[in-house]
Design goal:
Layout (H helix, E strand, L loop, with lengths): L3 E5 L4 H17 L4 E7 L4 H8 L3 E4 L10 H25 L3 E4 L5 H10 L3 E6 L6 H6 L5 E4 L13 E3 L6 H4 L11 E5 L7 H13 L7 E6 L5 H7 L7 E4 L5 H7 L2 E4 L3 H10 L3 E3 L8 H11 L4 E2 L7 H12 L2 H12 L6 H11 L2
Parallel strand pairs: 1-2, 1-4, 2-3, 4-5, 5-6, 6-7, 8-9, 8-11, 9-10, 11-12, 12-13
Helix pairs in contact: 1-14, 3-4, 7-12, 10-13
């Protein structure tokens, strides 16, 4: 009998890539299972999911949990009923045995519709402080999977399991091999739009020049919004700075890097832990503060260097880079300590529990 599983959510790589990891684990355990993804019209999933070979269905949705701009919130509220109606029609057509929400704009309306239509539903929450959508959805679903024990107190579901962070197979099976090099390699990335504040600060530091750039190579993932601007600003730095709009082969660059400059989403930190990479993390200052909480967990474990966004300047960033580069023992300590935060095979465990519920 045909079995369909739908994974709903997206918006950013932090939601999409764990969803892909779960999908691959399901396929490995039950190869005949048909897996579909549901995303939003504005998310990064439109770039990533088709490349992974999964069917992608788009519904209306948007972000509610942000400060300012009431007009955008009103527009999102008006789109939600449309997204819910689209979800109902899609569920009636696909007839999924299981619906898993992984967070993001499409997760809310689709998982709610599936629950109300009597489908088996679950959500996965990556952060110590769950997002608004998952906090709300937890009262409707049969099961919640979490990464942090602390998440349990925010969720209403009676069946909550600490499962860890699912990562892609290419991350899971990494062998610790690092690409040999003599220069100091810095990797900066920040998702679909880049981490714009960080990217601009890094660019400013590079443009100012100085001795810190000696024997340094930098890969800068800009995101789409600032890509053309950075192309102009990095003219003359082509031999030292590699600018990419989006990086699809992250393992290649993780093996390349000596130091990463990034946000502190749970998925990002887990991948750094899998590769044992020292990092300067600049948490995105969100209303619920989950990135700050994620980052503090690492800092308290001696596993990362934190710069609050309000303290981020080109001079501060360069000072931290120079401090770390001049202390190989500190870099090694950060690398060893961050490895302790990695829990392997989370995707396989989650898939087994999910499939076992049927």
């Amino acid at each position: 009998m045909r079995k369909v599983i739908v994974i709903a959510g997206g918006g950013t790589g932090g939601h999409i890539y764990p969803g892909i990891a779960i999908a691959r684990a399901i396929q490995k355990q039950e190869p005949a299972t048909e897996i579909h993804f549901v995303g939003s019209l504005s998310g990064l999933e439109q770039k990533i999911i088709p490349k992974e070979g999964f069917p992608l269905h788009l519904i209306a949705g948007g972000k509610l949990n942000f400060s300012g701009n009431r007009l955008n919130k009103i527009k999102t509220l008006l789109r939600l009923p449309i997204g819910f109606a689209q979800s109902v029609l899609l569920i009636l057509r696909l007839k999924p045995a299981i619906v898993l929400g992984v967070g993001g704009y499409a997760s809310g309306p689709f998982v709610l519709a599936a629950a109300l239509l009597g489908r088996s539903t679950a959500i996965w929450e990556p952060n110590a402080h769950p997002g608004m959508a998952n906090r709300w959805l937890s009262r409707f679903v049969q099961k919640c999977f979490v990464v942090f024990v602390e998440s349990k107190s925010f969720l209403s579901c009676k069946n909550i399991e600490v499962i860890g962070m699912p990562v892609r197979a290419e991350i899971e099976k990494q062998d610790g091999f690092r690409i040999p090099h003599s220069e100091f390699h810095i990797l900066h990335y920040g998702g679909s739009q880049g981490a714009r504040v960080i990217g601009r600060t890094l660019c400013e530091a590079i443009k100012k020049g100085g001795s810190w750039l000696r024997e340094v190579r930098i890969v800068h993932q800009s995101g789409s919004l600032d890509h053309s601007d950075f192309l102009q600003k990095y003219q003359g730095f082509e031999g030292q700075v590699e600018l990419q709009e989006f990086i699809y082969d992250m393992p290649k660059y993780y093996r390349w890097a000596d130091l990463v400059i990034c946000r502190s989403g749970a998925s990002t930190l887990t991948e750094l832990a899998a590769f044992g990479l020292p990092a300067i993390v600049i948490p995105l200052p969100l209303a619920d503060g989950h990135q700050e909480q994620n980052a503090m967990s690492l800092v308290q474990g001696g596993a990362a260097v934190l710069i609050p966004q309000q303290e981020l300047t080109a001079d501060r960033l360069v000072a931290e880079i120079e401090r770390l580069r001049s202390q190989p023992d500190l870099l090694e300590s950060l690398a060893n300590n961050i490895k302790k935060f990695y829990k392997p095979q989370a995707a396989d465990r989650l898939a087994a529990v999910l499939l076992g519920s049927q």
